Every structure is written in C-alpha cells, then in structure tokens.
Fold:
Amino acid sequence: MMTDTERRAWAYLARVAEPPCVSLTALIAEIGAVDAAAAIARQQVPRGHESVLRATRARAAEDRSASDLEVAHRCGARLITPDDDEWPGFSLLALAQADTGERGGVPLALWARGPARVDDLAAASIALVGSRAASSYGEHVTGLLAGELVDHGWGIVSGAAFGVDGIAHRSALASGGPTMAVLACGIDRDYPAAHSRLLAEIADRGVIVSEYPPHTTAARHRFLTRNRLVAALSNAVVVVEAGARSGAVSTAAWAVKLGRPLGAVPGPVTSATSVGCHELITDGRAALVADASAIMTLARPDGVAGPDHGPARGTDGLTPVQQRVHDALPGRGAVTIEEIVFSAGVEIGEVRAALALMELGGMVAMEGSGWRLP
Amino acid sequence: MMTDTERRAWAYLARVAEPPCVSLTALIAEIGAVDAAAAIARQQVPRGHESVLRATRARAAEDRSASDLEVAHRCGARLITPDDDEWPGFSLLALAQADTGERGGVPLALWARGPARVDDLAAASIALVGSRAASSYGEHVTGLLAGELVDHGWGIVSGAAFGVDGIAHRSALASGGPTMAVLACGIDRDYPAAHSRLLAEIADRGVIVSEYPPHTTAARHRFLTRNRLVAALSNAVVVVEAGARSGAVSTAAWAVKLGRPLGAVPGPVTSATSVGCHELITDGRAALVADASAIMTLARPDGVAGPDHGPARGTDGLTPVQQRVHDALPGRGAVTIEEIVFSAGVEIGEVRAALALMELGGMVAMEGSGWRLP
Structure:
C-alpha cells in the first residue's frame, strides 16, 4: 500500500512537467518518486539527469499535490502510478519511446475516475475512433461494432468527442459493457461540455482517464498527445470514419508508431468522412475491417482468444524468431532487452517487435524495464 | 489479306470445339488454319495431336462456316482470327494456359460486332464489373467511374449484364467513349433480352465480342469462361460491387490468375453487395480503389501514363496499324490526315482511330488541322 508521502510525491510529479516527460520518468525510475519529487523541488538532480531541470523548472516551486488529490477525491477519482497494481503495462509506449521522443513516452501517472479498472480494460479493449462530424452511416456502424464487441467481452476505448467517439461510448454503455474515455484535460472537467451527461455515465459505470492533473484545460497539443494513450490503452485501434484530416488519423498514426494493430472501416467512396479510412487501407497502414469479427481477429492475430474465450497461451503459433526470444526468457525473474538480444542472438528491433506481439498474446510480460514469462 | 478459304477454315474451327480449346489452338499453330480444318474434318491429325480428336469429334462432320459468316455479315459482325491485325495479344492468357487448363487458354477466334477495334480497346481499357443486383450506391459509383475513365481516354469493358455491367456500358456511351461488351453467347443474340437496346447501341458505337459462334446460347459454363476474356481484354479489372457469391468474383479470380491488376471499390459495411469487394481487399487479392485516379494508377502501375497523359512513350506497344500511322509522321512539321492515309496505306477511319489513341498516349500531337510527332 502506498503511503501518503508517496502519493503526494506522485501527485507533485504528475503536474511538475507537461506529460509525457521521458527525462522525468527516467529520474523516477532511478531514485523513486519521493526522492525524485524532493530533487525536482530543490532543482538539484543526480548527475546525468540534468535535462529534467528544464522540463520542470516552470512548475517546480509550486506544489499543488494536496489540492489535486483533494479535487480528485471529491469527484471520485484516483491517482494511478507505476507503483500501483492498476497501472497498465504501456510496454509499446516504452518500446517506442526512443523513436517518438518527448511527444511520446509513458505517462508520468494517470488520473482515473470511475469503477472500471484501467489495467483490465487496457488488456481487453478496442479503441473505436473517428470523425467528430460523423455521417449517419458512421454513427450507425459505430453503434453496431461497439455493441457487438461488448457482447464478445471487449471494452471500448475512445476520446469522448462528438461523433464516432461519443457513439462508441454510448453504445458500449447501452450494451452493458465497460468503456474508457481518455481525455485531453483534467478528469474533473467535462469536455466537450455538451457531453457532460455522457461523461457522468462513463464515470459511473466505466472509467475516465487522463494524464493531466485536475483543472487542466483541453488544448490542441494535448489532443495529439492524448491520442497516443488511446492507442496505448487498447488492443487494437479501429478508425470507423475519418475525413482526410481527421484527428482519428493522428490516433491511427500513433497505432502504427506503437505497432498496435490498426483497422479501418470502409464506407461509400462518395462520402468525405470515409476518405481517411480508405487512405489508411490503401497505404497499407490499416487493415480493412468490415465487422466485429474482423476487429477481434485483428486484436488477437494469433486467433488464440478474444477476452471472452480465456487465454490459451501455447507457443505453437510462434514464428522462429519469436520462439527464440521466448526461449531467452528465464523460468523466473525478468531480463532486459539487451540480455534477450544477447542470448537469443536476434537483432534488437526484431526482439522488440517479437516481445510486443507476444505480450499481446499474453505469452510474455513486462516488469519494470525488463521482461519475464507471465 | 485473308482468302475466303482461310476465313471459312477459321469459321469452321471456331465452332468445331467448345472454346477455348488448347489442343486445337496448338494444332492450328502448327499446320495453319486451312490444313487444321481439313484434318479435323477427316478426323485424321498429325501424330502428337490426337487429343484434339476428342475435343472436336461431336461437331467435326458439320460445317456451318458459310452460314456463320453469313449470319455475322447480316448483323454487321466480323470474324477476327490470330491472323488478323485486329487480333489482340492475349499474352497473359497464353502465359497462364499451362496453369488454367482447358477452361483457360487463348480463344480460337473472336466474333466482333461494332466499329471499335478490339485490339485498340483491349490496349486501353478498364473492365468494370459487379453485381447484377447492384444497389443504388453501386449504380451511382459505376456511372461516375465509367464517365471519368472515359474522360481520361480509357475504354470500358464489361459483360452487358444487369446492374453494374449495364451501367458501365451506358455511362461510357453517354460520355462518348468506346465500350466493349464480352458475351457468353453468339454476337447475334441479345442477352439479357431486356438489354437489346443497349446491345444495339454498343454495336453501333462500341463493339460486342464473343468467342462463341453465332446462335450459341448463353449457358452457365460459358459465363465463367467468358469472364476470363473480360479480364484478358482490359488493362485492369475493377469490381465495383459484389455480393459474396457474385459472378464478378469469378472475373476477379481470372484477373488474379492472369496477373491482371485487380481493384475493388469499397462500400458500406452494412451493404450485402459490398461484401465481395471487402473480401477481395482484405484477402489482398484486390487493391482498394476509391476513385478513377486510383484505377488509372492500378492499370498503369509504372505511372508512365494513362492513355491520356503520356510523356511520349516508346512505340513498342503499338499495333501494326498504329505503327504504320506513326511512321507516316515526318521528323519535323505536321501533315494532314489525307497525307497519312496515302503514305501509310491505311484506311482513313483506321488512321483517325489510331491517331486518337496515340494522341491520348502522348505519341502524336495535333497542330492546326494536321498531325505531328510531339
């Protein structure tokens, strides 16, 4: 159980930099949250971590951790940190961190409001995203897919926006399934305001998540950053409808960067809101998905299981490279990627890809910065 | 110029076996049409060609060549043989022959009715095929695509059936472009009967083609065999709309067998008539094509040219007639059509057609009322 001091330290750290902040994540991983918070507050950090000073200087002197935790408590929210059981793995974000720079990376912490567990949902959910200006076709299909996926035991992740996002959440709730809204503002804010009732229902029966502290306002750069969490907190991303410049295309780009399976729903070629979907398919970035069954296959490419059929986890279906990476994991304990590279004799890029895919299949698990058998 | 004897021999051979007939094609290639016809009629063939006897035994004794040519003449049709200039290459069919067996292979001959040249059309056309029970969406998109492709200089090939096929032909005609209907019955028959007026218009301004002799009735196996000619006589096959078991899927399968570029138009996932298209895309057999531009890229994957914007390409792909017309143009300056007719020794109608197509390909240019090299 986390002490109050630890929780305060995390709340301070979650606000002291604009998340994600790779340098701050690295500092915390090395010296722990309490010492990291103290070091940042003093603006004196261990050698090698100097870059974190610039990222935290503007907010270091102001400690709002008590009031943030109080606001969260009042609206029924909690702070989830990498030290909590509920923390989702974020392994793909961690793996991609080197390539995605400061805009990518693992969140510092998550604020969450609602009864659904974030780790459980992230382990068995589909992100349905799309145009705010959805057509009636897009709305209809979103509703159908969300309902059918929920019927098969999947949760629905989206961004609570107008159009496809909103319908995805609503349809999941209407089908009695869990849904997660990832916000680009604080979990105490209703954005968009017209969705306040929907957000209240999600907070009541699903979960609202944000890496931003309470009171944070939605801003353009935060939507783009938020989109990576939609991809990170689901097993597959599906763009139901998107114009050529839809924000959903940004979420799709994150899915590609993270190696998250990406699907796109086709539509009439005469519809402007399907142009983005068709481009994703044509470019080979997204698989064409025409029904819930195709989406489930996308999310579990080994065909082993949807979340409703229980995790059968044989290694029979592994590729030779995956098998070598799998064999490089010890019977107990975790090893680093570098150790796997050495003992498997497989290139680091291939090791990363193999681990990511096997993690989806539940055949390996991340522990700290290392990997172990589940 | 072919003699009457030769033409009679070809007409006899075009009926004596159910086409395509690889063994008969091989015999004709070895000993010529006149000797092949005589040998078949006697049922005595050179050693090594015995298999052709079984394929021709049922019809060998009956020579209807005179009446077939007479019927063709009366309805304004002609017989095109491999010895004629107008014979299209069929190189993909010939290459695939070993794999496709008796159901595949090059036609024995083609019966053609209408002013458009089969070889020219086959060199610059798109096959638009699809469901007989097209939706209003499918009809709308077929019309749009056919019109736009014609505007860019492409001809439209299809099967004259209800639904997508019919709209494709109609839209091509309405846009003033050439269109070819490939039939599964004799060119003297209207199939389907309700399309008699459409077929008359195609015969008037485009061309109707069949490998079956006059009077042949449409039969199920002939539709499947005909579908390979739709793929063989176009630069790319596009399935606009197709149910899961549509005949268009058979044409698509032929395109794949022949290595012909294949596209499919997506549609609403809620529409039964788009299921076949989505399957073709998902399986990786067809490329998703959402507009005419994507279709043209598919048909000319080297990006060199639609027939309309050629950066002056080589003359390698020209038909013999086009080559003669091309050679009649001087190194500098322009000449009139009449001068080309004289120096090329080609009829004025054919010169016009050749110039029009080569202009689309960027190989000749108009100047005032004359023509020149670009």
The interface with chain A takes residues 137, 140-141, 144, 265-270, 274-275, 278, 281-282, 287-288, 290-291, 294 of chain B (CB under 8 Å). Confidence is low (pLDDT under 50) at residues 308-313 of chain B. The domain at 113-299 of chain B is CATH 3.40.50.450 (Rossmann fold).
